[in-house]
Amino acid sequence: MPEQFLKIESCGPVEIDCKRANLPFTLRSTCKCGEEVVVDLADDQYLSYPVVGGEDELCKMEGLEPEKVHFYCQECDSEWSFRVRLAMTMTVVP
Ligand SMILES: [Zn+2]
User: What does the pLDDT look like over 31-69, one tens digit per residue?
Assistant: First the structure.
């Protein structure tokens, strides 16, 4: 009898149907004034309808917005943001 196996291939892009997706990431960015700002995506901020596995051109074709994370420095009242791409992995659990 052949051994059963599971082959997992990624595809995409797929938009996750979640308005407020809190995720297990802590993001740190240093402000121009030198202050480190920490954003906890599990609590402080969320991604709205995030796209997983998307290449930029495919996202544009599908009309999907790239994700952004926002930082605010209380020391000098500065704001800045970064575009981010969400990737996902799936593994078989024995
Ligand atoms: Zn600052």
Answer: 999 999 999 999 999 998 888 876 777 677 777 777 889
pTM of this structure: 0.77
Residue 71 CA to ligand 1 center (angstroms) comes to 10
Centre of ligand 1 from the C-alpha of residue 44, in Å: 18
Question: For residue 50, how far is its CA from the centre of ligand 1 (angstroms)?
Answer: 28
Q: Dihedral angle at the C-alpha atoms of 40, 54, 88, 42, nearest 10 degrees?
A: 20
Report whether the peptide linkage leading into residue 66 is cis, meaning its omega lies within 30 degrees of zero.
Answer: no
Q: Is 15 helix (H, G, I), strand (E, B) or coil?
A: strand
